[in-house]
Amino acid sequence: MTEQNNERVSSRRSSSSRTRTRKPKKNQLPFGIGLAVVLAGIGIYLATVSAKLGLFWIIGLSFGFILQRSRFCFTASMRDPYLTGSTSITRPVLIAFAITSIGFTAIKYGAFVKGLPIPGQGYVVPISLATAVGAFMFGIGMVIAGGCASGTLMRVGEGFQMQVLSLFFFIVGSLWGAHDFGWWKLNVILKGKTVFLPDVFGWFGGLLVNLLIIAALYIAADKWENRSQES
Known about the structure:
Blueprint: H1 2-21, H2 29-49, H3 51-70, H4 74-83, H5 90-113, H6 129-145, H7 149-158, H8 161-187, H9 197-201, H10 203-230
Helix pairs in contact: 2-3, 5-10, 7-8
């Protein structure tokens, strides 16, 4: 009984010391109101310049809010299966890919049926070994940096200093790549073969192939997590 009483007393002391060392939370409501006013003012100004700019501002803020609150991170979707065995973020990303595949196919097919120029065809570029090398380099870089483009911007807004450094070099690399893109396109990118699934399998066949690949990856991700939990 004496030992139990001593343990209770020590636990109470430790808990009380922890409560004493806790700093009171700052009231962030005034800061939030001020920030909302500033953001609204910027949005109104952009809308007066161009309606599209105002719309882009609202969409950007909405995406940032959703990413921050949902912790939806593309880097984590690729990194966590290897580091922790979790695919809790990987599977929602695959679902998002499936939804966007259906949506973009509908938009493109609608333009095709009407005889209009198919939107986004300028972004159908050849694939080659350079695609795999670039994906490998980007994968390593985003894991070391702790985020891709959207994740880095989100964490800069949260105040992470490391992400500020990552954002700086992200901008440097983007400007450098844009400056030399013409050379890379002529000597590397255009050497590959262009593959547009609707040209190979038809519109509905191409969508089906795309969804089947995503479904296979989803099943593999689910089994990967179950196996990691069992081990």
